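Protein modeling request. Please complete all fields; requests missing the sequence field cannot be processed.
Requester role: graduate student
Desired output: 3D structure, token encoding
Chains: 1
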Amino acid sequence: MSVLARLYGELLKSPKPQEPEQPILGKTLPELLDEACDRRPNPNAFNQFRKGQWQPWSNHAFRVATEEIAQGLFGLGLEKGDRVAFLMHSNLQFAIADVACARAGLASVPITLTETLANITFILKHSEAKVLFVSNLDLLYQVVPQLWETEPLQTVVVVDVPQNWLEERQQKLHCSLGYEVDAEACPSPGDCLCIPTFVEKAETERNCPIFPQCIRVFSWAELQAQAKESNAVLPVDLSPQDLATILYTPVESGELKGVM
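Delivered output (260 residues):
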């Protein structure tokens, strides 16, 4: 939320107003972003280090990106209040995904990259996250075996993918008809994340031959492209009282608790 705090700070700045401005009350996070873009356009609102150099981003480009990702998320069939988990580095894409969730009426669930696999599994299950954003394939490959236990999860979005993404997905991520899946959840097994490729043999031999859900895998760019083709309508009934984020933190007993 530090990005939104900075935008909010910019919004409150005004050069020598002729009369006192009314305080901004009862605004949603997307409304604050929209007003900051309209009142104080900034071509260098953000900078991200990519390909060996800093690349500037305007707050307008940031707003457009949040709208595209929000549209893409809603096009996945999510409903207002659904949870979207992040296993991502702290960068521009994290901020875009976070604000996109707010714009779509979804609650973000950021997961610290230093969490254990057991805690990541717990957070995904407890929050009932339906979508998981991951920064890259390395992170995805680490958590794939645990996704057997996260039944509500429906979609994984990979932010940075290699140039041979389509080939990589076909060879390693999508399944062939070599095991049994829930026919209702996954009519076409070839479209599912191929969990058995990453699960240890001892795991596959346990008494659970049917995988409980189909988990689709998209790249960030594919989600944006789908948004441009989607006719999904974003919710217009956003409220300042809507849940924005669930942060999981350990209590004295060591258990993780979700803080709204």
